[in-house]
Amino acid sequence: MTTQGTAPPTVYDVASAAGVSIATVSRVLRTPDAVREATRDRVQAAIRSLGYVPSGNARALAGRRTGVVGLLLPGFDVVPDERPDVVTDGGVRIVDDRRHVTQPTSSNLYFDEVLRGAETEAWQRGLALMVAAGRGPSRDVIVNDVAGRVDGLAVLAQTVPDELLEHVARRIPVVVLADDRRSRGFDSISVDNAAGMRTLAAHVIGRLGIRSIAYVAGPVDSPDDQERTAGFKRALEDHGLAPAVVRTVHGDFGRVRARELARALLDERVPRAIVCSNDQSALGVLDAVLARGLRVPDDDVVTGFDGIDAGRYSVPRLTTVHQPMGDLGRAAVRAIVDRLDRREGPPRALRLPVEVLLRESCPPSL
Amino acid sequence: MTTQGTAPPTVYDVASAAGVSIATVSRVLRTPDAVREATRDRVQAAIRSLGYVPSGNARALAGRRTGVVGLLLPGFDVVPDERPDVVTDGGVRIVDDRRHVTQPTSSNLYFDEVLRGAETEAWQRGLALMVAAGRGPSRDVIVNDVAGRVDGLAVLAQTVPDELLEHVARRIPVVVLADDRRSRGFDSISVDNAAGMRTLAAHVIGRLGIRSIAYVAGPVDSPDDQERTAGFKRALEDHGLAPAVVRTVHGDFGRVRARELARALLDERVPRAIVCSNDQSALGVLDAVLARGLRVPDDDVVTGFDGIDAGRYSVPRLTTVHQPMGDLGRAAVRAIVDRLDRREGPPRALRLPVEVLLRESCPPSL
DNA sequence: TTGAAAGCGCTAACAC
DNA sequence: GTGTTAGCGCTTTCAA
C-alpha cells in the first residue's frame, strides 16, 4: 500500500480509539490475560483498524533489551562472474555456457550456512537477527551501528580488529566464531580442526598405510591452518613418522596457487598422498594431478578440509573433513543468550565436532 | 570481554566525563564540524575510555528512522541430512560418503543469494539489514516484530499473507519479491519469467527445429509457473504450433515427482525435447531419461529454469534460464529507499532481465 | 559554539 | 482490571 500521508499510529492513537489508557494497550500486547476480554477485543479492533504496529525501538528502549542479535560476517566477495559468448535475442541474453569454467564461490556459501544456522536458532528463541558484512573503511561505523541495536554480537574471526571488538564488548556480549579468542577475553566457538585433520591423516597413514606424503598448508597466519597442521603433525607422531619425512608447502588456501604448488611438487617426485589444509587447495591439487595423467586415488590420494559443496561435485569427489557451519551459527546465538543471563564469569570456548567424509579421492580402503 | 557489572554508558556518562552537555556529545557523533576541536577531542576521549556505544534504539526513536531494512524469507528448510555408514574414531566421526546421493538444497541457496544482494546494497546505502524467516504459526509475531524495527520491508512472494502485509504496509513501505503484486497495492520486483521461457523455447523450436515436445509444468498456483507457461505458449504460437501438440504434465517443482512424471511420459512416447518449468524438475527428468538409456542431448534435449547450482554440476550440464537472485535483493533495497523518499504514488513493478544459459543438455546447435 | 528542555513511543511500577 | 506517571537514551529546536 502506498497511501500514507500521516504518521504511523502509536499506542496513544490506539488507546483513544479504544477508549482506554496506553497502559491497557501495552497490556493487550504483552500480557493479554491481564485484560478483561471485552476491553481486549476493543483494543484489538482498534489496532486492526488503525493499522498499528508497535515500535520496536521504543519497546527496546523502554524494556532495556532489543530482542535482536547481530551477526558480523567478513565482506561478501562481490565477484561478478564473467560470461563468455553472449548473444541477445528479444531482450533476453543467450549465453553459450558450455565451456564456462565453474567458479569457486565457496567461501560465500560458508557464511551463508552460518547465517542460516544463526537465523534458525534466533528464531526459535524469539529473537531477530541483524546481519552485516564488515568491509571497507567504514567498518567501525557499521560495527557501532550494529552493536548499538542488538543485545549481543557474533563475529566471524578476522572480521573486526580486536580493539574495536573490545570496545563493543563493554556494552554487549560478543562471541567470536571460528577462532578461540579466550585469551583476548572473548567467548568463542570453533571447530575441532586439529582432531579432524589428525583423524583424516591417521586414515591415510594408518589405515591405508601410506608413507609418502606431501602436505599443502595454508597461509601461516591463519589460525585454522595452524590447528590443522598441528593435527597433521600429531598424526605423524602417532605413527612414528618424523615430520621431516613429509614435504610441506605453503599456499594461500586458493585453488590457483595450489595448482602451481602441486605442479612443482609433482616435478620433483610423486608422493602417494597429498593432504591439503583446505578444500580449495585440494581441488587445485586435483586439477594438477589429473592434468599430469595420474589417476586418483589409484596413483595418488588427495584430501581436503572444509566440506565445501564443490568437493561433492568434483571428479573424483573429494575426501574431506566437514565443518558444521550451520551449527556454528546456531551455537553462536546460544552462546550470546547464555552470556546474557550470566554476564560475569570467565570466557568460554566451545569446540564443535567435525566429520571425516571419505569419498573417492581418498576412499575407505584401496 | 566479560567484565561488566554496570549498565552501559550513555550520553550522560560521556557528557559528564567530558564536562559538556549531552547535546554536545550528540553533536560530536552526528555533526562533528559543529563542535570546537578541543571540545570534540575531550568528548572522543571520554567515549573511548568509557567504551561508549550509542543506543541505536534511542537514536531511532528520537530520529524517527531506524536506518534498517528488513528482509523476510520463507522458512529455511531445516532438512538435517542423513548420513550413511558411520564409524567413530577418537571423537571424530568418519563417514563413508562415496554413495551419498547429493541432496538438492537449492531453494535455500536461492534465498542466500537474495540475502547477499540485499545486504550489499543496504550496506552501500548505509543501512543495516534485518533478516527473518517467516515460518510457523508465530509468523504474525515475527512480521510485526520486524516491521516495528525497520524503515521498510522486502518480502519474498508467498511468505506472508496479503492481509498481514497490508497491515504492515500502513506503517512502512513494503516491496514484494518475485511476484508482481501491484494489484494488491504493493511495489514489487520480479523476474522476466515469460520472456525467459519464450526465448528458450524459441531456441528449441526455432533454432533446433524440434517439434516433438513435452512440457513439465509446476504447481498450478505458482505465479512463477504461470508466467513461464505463458511464455512457453507464446513461443509455440510464434512458430505456428498449437499448444495442443505439446504434451503437458503438472509436477510440484520437485525432482522426485518430475522423475515419476518423466517415466510415465517416456512410457507413452519419447518426445525430442522436454522443457521444464524449473531446474529441479529438469534434473528429475534428466534422471529418468538417462535411466532409460537415452542420450542427452542426442536422443532428447532437456531444459530447466532458475539457474541453480546443481544444474552446473549435473551430467550433462543443464541448459536453463538464469534468474538474477542477487539483483533481486539489491533492487529490493533500492525500491524501499525510493519509496521512502516518495511515499505517495501508484505501486511500481520492476522486471529484472533473465539469461538463457545454453549448456550440454540442450546446446546451441545439434 | 554550547546548553536546556521537550519530546520520540513504549514499559513497568505504583496507585486506584 | 485499569489509569497515571516516570523514565529508557537519544536528537533537535531554541536560547544564550
Short characterization:
2 copies of one chain form a homodimer. By secondary structure, chain A is of the alpha/beta class.
Explained architecture:
- The structure is a homodimer of 366-residue chains.
- The first copy, chain A, is of the alpha/beta class and 366 residues long.
- The first copy, chain A, contains 13 helices and 14 strands.
- Chain A has helices spanning 11-18, 22-30, 37-50, 56-63, 106-124, 139-147, 162-169, 193-207, 223-238, 255-268, 279-291, 310-313, 325-341, and strands spanning 68-74, 86-89, 92-96, 128-134, 152-156, 174-177, 187-191, 213-217, 247-250, 273-276, 301-303, 320-322, 349-352, 355-358.
- In chain A, the strands form 4 sheets. In chain A, strands 4-1-5-6-7-13 form a 6-stranded parallel sheet, with helices on both faces. The first copy, chain A, has a 4-stranded parallel sheet with strand order 9-8-10-11, sandwiched between helices.
- In chain A, strand 2 (86-89) and strand 3 form a beta hairpin.
- In chain A, helix 1 (11-18) crosses helix 3.
- The radius of gyration of chain A is 27 Å and the shape is elongated.
- The N and C termini of chain A lie far apart (65 Å).
- Mean pLDDT of chain A is 88; it is low at 77-86 and 101-106.
- Chains A and B meet through helix 4, strand 3, helix 5, strand 4 and helix 6 of A and helix 4, strand 3, helix 5, strand 4 and helix 6 of B.
- Strand 3 of chain A pairs parallel with strand 14 (355-358) of chain B, so a sheet runs across the interface.
- Chain A binds a DNA duplex (16 and 16 nucleotides) through helix 2 and helix 4.
